Amino acid sequence: MSAVMPTMKIIGTVTTYTGSDHPYLRGHRVVIIAIHKGVLVSPDDYSILRDDLEIAAAGGVDDEVDLVEIAPVHADGRASWVTSDAKVIDLEMFRAR
User: Fold this and answer.
1) Would you say 17 and 25 are in contact if contact means Cβ atoms under 8 Å apart?
2) Could you tell me which residues come within 8 angstroms of residue 53 by beta carbon, excluding any fewer than 6 positions away?
3) Which of 7, 8, 18, 53 is found 20 to 30 A from 59 (Cα to Cα)?
4) pTM beyond cutoff 0.85
5) CB atoms within 10 A of CB 40
6) Whole-number Å distance between alpha carbons of 44 and 46
7) Where are the domains of the chain?
């Protein structure tokens, strides 16, 4: 099931983490760094997409097979260099779809 239309802006979007896998991020603003396309079904052979055009060409974001690489956003608006992998449905922007 595709969670996101392939034409929407994804990379660089700031949203809120709502999941429980990363309790330290719950309720915090995060920025989307990349989509790990197909990692949930093929952890040894997947693509890391860092561009919205690549994501669109791959058919968008699929909540059943993809993970989203995110970074916390500091109070001053800077993104942390530390990243985490999140389920698609654990990000507010995708839950609203």
Assistant:
1) yes
2) none
3) 18
4) yes
5) 16
6) 6
7) 14-95
